[in-house]
Amino acid sequence: MSKLEFLQGNIACAKGAIAAGCTFFGGYPITPSTEVAEYMAEALPKIERGCFIQMEDEIAGIASTIGAAWTGARSMTATSGPGFSLMMENIGYAFMTETPCVIVNVQRGGPSTGQPTMAAQGDMMQARYGSHGDYAIIALCPATVQECFELTVKAFNLADQFRCPVLVMTDEIIGHMRERVIIPDSVEIIPPKPAKPTDLPFATDETEIPGFLPFGSGQRTHVTGLTHDERGYPDSADPQRHETLVTRLVHKIESKRHEIADYEIVNPDAEIIFVCYGVPVRSVQQLAAQDKTIGYLKLRIVWPFPEEVLKQFKCVSTFIVPEMNLGMISREIERHTTVPVVSAGKIGGDLHTAQELQEIANAYKATRGRT
Amino acid sequence: MKAQVKEDWFRQDRLPHIFCVGCGNGTVINCVVDAVYDLELDIDKTVFISGIGCSSRAPGYMATDSLHTTHGRALAFATGVKLGRPEFDVIVFTGDGDLAAIGGNHFIHACRRNIDLTVVCMNNQIYGMTGGQGSPCTPIGKLSTTTPYGANETPFDLCELAVAAGANYVARWTSYHAKELRNAVIKGIETPGLSFIEVACQCPTSFGNKNKLRQPIDHVNFFRKNAIFLQKAKKMEEERKEIPAEAVIVGEYARRSRPVIGGRI
């Protein structure tokens, strides 16, 4: 029997993590994400091998999370903008070492300390490009409290499947908003690809994803953030080695963006298509309920960007992209389409109203000689 | 699995190693391997962890699971490993730059938590890997590429820091004191909680070269000549005798049983 609960998004993320079998949380308090840590602090000690630790900063939070992941624990941390900035180097480390782990970023207004208690989506490009070097990332964007639960579960599965860090990019509104959530009895768990102790720890087949054996399995794995070979041994001065490794690490994610993609399309034959993710989805849905001339694409996973989806809109004459930043994903869309893209960025912490979006749509219609 | 011979602890296929001729790190690694071999630790339940620097290359030569992490963060990664599998023996190799500069905050907090790790710091008083820059442990007056007129900042006393922060076992030895060092590592592994073992060791390439300790043996001899046992140093302090600036105080700074986390279940 599933249960109906009335929860805020942060708690739904934490409950999703527990449902997914997360047994380790290492983090540092930061508004507006702290409830995730607080819930985990209460829940994890009651679970077999469960462990919560409040670290000395966010760098240590992600570091301990990666360390625990190598003991085979499903592990996570949660933070917000300033903490996310501090985590960047180790997110790159997790990518380079193919460490499955989950990072929840409850976005707030930035840059710097900015607006600790106000919502934003200003970390979307940092999520994709914030660590140094070439890499790829998977980033999920819940628009409801229900999705906070579901996408956190999914984040753990994707992390294990693709052996990479996975980001759950929520925001202050979804994080603190309370909604009805259906908590199922159990959730689907997709484990990492199995491996044998005799396998080379970073050798892959056509999937480009190595099997995973945690420490203590007898594989005696050397894990390094240096460019390494299939044995895990450092070999950082060979250009070919670096190219082969990093290309595979990027390709194992980017080449499967269809498989990873998670989106919803409403009214695909409309001329005006809103592309949205995270909390602005709610305003777009409100508008779509009253203006049948518009359609929308709701992205539950923004990275890797599912660029082919844009081709499904045969009649579109403009994409309008409402997001709580000054136009980050709108530029990503511009990269993949010849259709004009209108950025409807808004910062400050208030969500776009349906009325504001209607006005943007109307202004566009006016330029096309229609009302 | 227990090692049949000491060599079982090393990855033979990783040789030759990257350390310079005369580097003190080899002595330190050997002493640690002597300790884990004598303690008959299980190779498959021992994890070596490090940050970045010359010292931090050590785990790459050990035939165990090992984690070579980011600069300064080894203790934070090790915290996750130890809490994930408290039954593991987790040993951290670090250096003075890695531990005392960029990793200083993780160091004091690991000591405060008294998490059950053994931390071996190869203190060569310099950044070796990047070519000889000054570190928080470069003594006043010593030359490095970033202290071309002589270091003018007071260095850290890492052992005093570890004691103040709460570590259960704290000792300092040098690359001259191989036997004492091996015994300290054994005591460190056996003592629940955070064990911190600092090893003053030579870096002939970057430190010795600039500071009139050109041959590796020069710096080892310097340690032999200038080492003062902790008890003697304390007595000298009581008697208000001046401890020479070049003295390296060696011995056991702490062995106690404060509350621990991450201990064996």
- Gap between N and C termini of chain A: 50 Å
The 3D shape of chain B can be described as globular
Beta content of chain A comes to: 15-25%
CATH class (first level) name of chain B = Alpha Beta
Q: Class of the largest domain in chain A, according to the CATH hierarchy?
A: Alpha Beta
User: How many DSSP-defined strands of chain A?
Assistant: 16
Cα-atom radius of gyration of chain B: 17 Å
CATH H level of chain B: which superfamily?
A: Thiamin diphosphate (ThDP)-binding fold, Pyr/PP domains
Helix content of chain A: 25-40%
Name the average pLDDT of chain A.
97
Q: Helical proportion of chain B?
A: 25-40%
Could you name the CATH topology of chain B?
A: Rossmann fold
For the record, the CATH architecture of chain B stands as: 3-Layer(aba) Sandwich
CATH topology (fold) name of the largest domain in chain A: Rossmann fold
